[in-house]
Structures are given as C-alpha cells and as structure tokens.
Amino acid sequence: MGELIRQWRERRRLSQLQLSIQADVSTRHLSFVETGRSRPSRDMVLHLAEELDLPLRERNHLLLAAGYAPVYAETALESPKMAAVRGAVSQILRGHEPYPAVVVDRAWNMVDANAAVALFTGEVAAELMAPPVNVLRVSLHPDGMAPRILNLGEWRGHLLARLRRQVALTGDADLGALHDELAAYPGARSGPAPEAPGPGDLAVPLRVAHEGAELTFISTVATFGTPLDVTVAELAIESFLPADRHTADVLRRWQAGRPQQAAPH
C-alpha cells in the first residue's frame, strides 16, 4: 500500500512535504506509511486517497492493498438498485433530442445514446459498431467518422489530449493502450492544433460533413455529483449542441423526417 501511495503522490507531482501539509499529517508518518514501517488505519487510507484525488475504483484498490475491505460498491447498471440512475440517464438523453447525446463508461465504451447519435454513426463500418462500441475509436478510425470530420486534426488533438489527462488522473493502463492506438491512426497533422485557437474561438468545435453541407457542434460533458458507487462515478454523458442556426435547423428537420425507433444501445 505504501508503494501505491508513493506512486500516486508522484503522479500528482507532490513531494512528501506537500502531501503531508495538504493532508495535515506529519512528514515522518507519511514517510513511514510509504516505506511500510507504519500501517495506517482505514480512515487514514481514505483520507490520503481523498487528498490525492483518487478515483473511487483506485480508492478500493488502495484499501485492499492495506488489508481493508473496499467501501465503494460497483453495481451493474442493469441492477434494480440502479433504476434511479438509469431513469436519470434516459431523461437526459431524451431531453437533448434532436441533438446527439451519448453515455460512456470509463473506457469510453457506449452505454446508451439517443436516436440523434445515428446522424454521426450512419456511415460508420459495421465492425466498429459491434458491442462494445468505443466512441473514441468510432470517432477517429479511418472507417469511422474520421472521413466526415472536416476539422479532423483539431478534433483529434482535442480527444487525445483529453484521453492523456484521463490516463494521468487514473493511471489506467488500458486507457494508455487506447491512446496509443488512436494516436497511430491517420490524421495527425490535418488542421490546426487546439492549443492555438483562432480569433473569437470559445471551444473546440466538431465540424461534420452531412449531405454536402457542414454541421458544427460544441460538446458538453456531464457526470453525477458526489457519487458513492464506482459505476456511477465512471459514467459520463456527452452532449453535442448546435453551434449555429443552420446545424440546429438541419437536426430538427432530420428528426422530423426520421421514423420513430428506439435509441441505439
């Protein structure tokens, strides 16, 4: 457990002194914890995990390494206990129509989506849409959305930077492997870097070709506040809102002319 504490402290770029001040514990005690000379209480493990801003999944791992039982449940989304969560997610997805919205787990696999997401995925290769559908892979793969994304380099840079931050936060090796896979796809140098916005830019847009025209979106991400379950903590809802009136009009017309059917899962 002490080695894990040290690794997370270094990942957060904190010295022992900085963490001890932040956590209000002595540097000596923290040093003893990291070297295994002192076995911390469960409350101390949770306290250090809080100060290190660890994801709930990693807090459970830390507790197990210290010899304690995990305190955060990981409940399947299909469980009856999660009915309220499923209901909230469905309400949010429906409320965003006719604009696309998708729910993903920690690995960026699609958990649910509203019907408008089909506007993005209609031309994606069937094998990329086989479960589990990874939305980042669908976005950047040459057989996915990539050929239709008009600012592919900019959008690709945004997604990869976002994924790098997630890897740094969680230390998840699978996410690191996903980043390396996506970074090897074509499109690295097409378009401006998101770190150099143009005059008046407010957010990195997603520009998609659709029936000979351009649709422009800005995205928002929502998570559940103060989650106490690992599954709930790792859910994210990404919504794509029209950045101009033309895009909004196209989406409304597209939905009006589309047969009513269940949202993709």
UniProtKB/TrEMBL annotation:
SMART domains: HTH_XRE. Residues 5-59 form the HTH cro/C1-type domain. PROSITE patterns: HTH_CROC1. Gene3D superfamilies: 3.30.450.180, lambda repressor-like DNA-binding domains. GO terms for molecular function: DNA binding. This is Transcriptional regulator with XRE-family HTH domain.
